[in-house]
Design brief:
Distance between the termini: 20 Å
CATH architecture: 3-Layer(aba) Sandwich
Protein name: Esterase, PHB depolymerase family
Order of helices and strands: EEEEHHEHEHEHHEHEEEEEH
Shape: globular
Largest sheet: 11 strands, mixed
CATH superfamily: Alpha/Beta hydrolase fold, catalytic domain
Number of domains: 1
Number of strands: 13
Strand content: 15-25%
Organism: Sulfitobacter brevis
Strand order of the largest sheet: 1-2-3-5-4-6-7-8-11-10-9
InterPro entries: AB_hydrolase_fold, Esterase_phb, Plant_Biomass_Hydrol_Est
Helix content: 25-40%
Keywords: Hydrolase, Signal
GO molecular function, one term: hydrolase activity
Oligomer: single chain
């Protein structure tokens, strides 16, 4: 059992979880009534944020108490990146078996083992660089995850250095659909079933251009065999939700483009179902991405019908 110490009123520090080649920190939140074979959600913060600040803003630990899920918050160290960004654009930190992806994989294994998590119900989400690293994890370790949610992020494999990252963030030089598909397929030897994908982006984002949301969707469409226009479009909290369903009618990709929202995580802190707290990059827009992502994954009562098909973790 690894050493665990308190880091705040909500999160605890997970120590000695593996070789940690990416030199990351790890924080956890496990509700007192966490059930055996319960789910795990991995939550990746954005630039200039910490696990604690992202949890406060997004409300994940509040929802964890409500729904009975364990949480893992990988954290970047300033010694690795001066603005606290995950290094999703570096070759050594964007491939299976090395760097930051392997560190996160090691953390996941430790939490799954320590808390009897159902390995077929592991999910991952992140915002900004955390969103881009979510793309990395879904591509390099697809067998680990039942679903992923990418907020204000970028598709996998489109940048190999900081200059290319800046070009992609500005919405330029997006690869062809076939190249996007090949990048994911080439990141591991996995052949499916693939994790479901949720994409969130503000249409007024001047940090990571919203065209990246479309690139993420296209990166996963052929993999899920849902090429072309969405199966349907519905309205959720006054925002459009595009849905792509597979041949069995299961929703495998969803996309929310939030009108007039800049760079950040969409939250709804008010009301009986409010979650989180508005702040820098935590944007009060009247829709909780946290709650709706958990719905999409079947982790809430209202979202149970959407639960992803079980898969076996490596």
């Amino acid at each position: 059992m690894p050493m665990v110490s308190n880091t705040s009123d909500r999160l605890s520090v997970l120590e000695n979880f593996g070789s940690d080649p990416g030199s990351l920190s790890a924080n956890t939140y496990v509700p007192k009534k966490f059930p055996k074979n319960g789910p795990l959600v991995v939550v990746l913060h954005g630039n200039t944020q910490s696990p604690e600040s992202y949890d406060i803003g997004s409300g994940w630990s509040t929802l964890a108490d409500e729904c009975g899920m364990a949480l893992l918050f990988p954290g970047q160290r300033l010694t690795n990146n001066l603005i606290g960004s995950f290094n999703w654009f570096e070759a050594g930190d964007s491939q299976r078996g090395c760097g930051e992806p392997l560190s996160i994989r090691q953390m996941i294994k430790q939490v799954v083992d320590d808390h009897a998590v159902d390995p077929s119900r592991v999910f991952i989400t992140g915002m900004s660089s955390g969103g881009a690293m979510t793309s990395v994890m879904l591509a390099t370790y697809p067998e680990v995850f039942a679903g992923g949610a990418i907020i204000a992020g970028l598709p996998y494999g489109t940048a190999n250095n900081m200059m290319e990252a800046a070009i992609c963030m500005n919405g330029y030089s997006s690869p062809s659909d076939s190249k996007l598909d090949a990048l994911v397929r080439g990141a591991s030897k996995f052949t499916g079933p693939w994790p479901t994908i949720s994409v969130w982006h503000g249409d007024s984002d001047t940090t990571v251009d919203s065209s990246n949301a479309g690139s993420i969707v296209r990166q996963w469409q052929k993999i899920h065999k849902v090429e072309g226009p969405p199966t349907r479009v519905e309205t959720v909290n006054s925002f459009p939700r595009k849905i792509w369903c597979d041949a069995d009618g299961r929703v495998v990709i969803e996309e929310y483009i939030i009108e007039a929202m800049g760079h950040g995580t969409p939250i709804s802190a008010e009301g009986d179902e409010g979650l989180g707290e508005a702040g820098e990059y935590m944007l009060e827009v009247g829709i909780s991405s946290t709650r709706h992502i958990a719905d999409f994954w079947g982790l809430t009562r209202s979202g149970a019908a959407n639960r992803a098909e079980p898969k076996t973790a490596a």
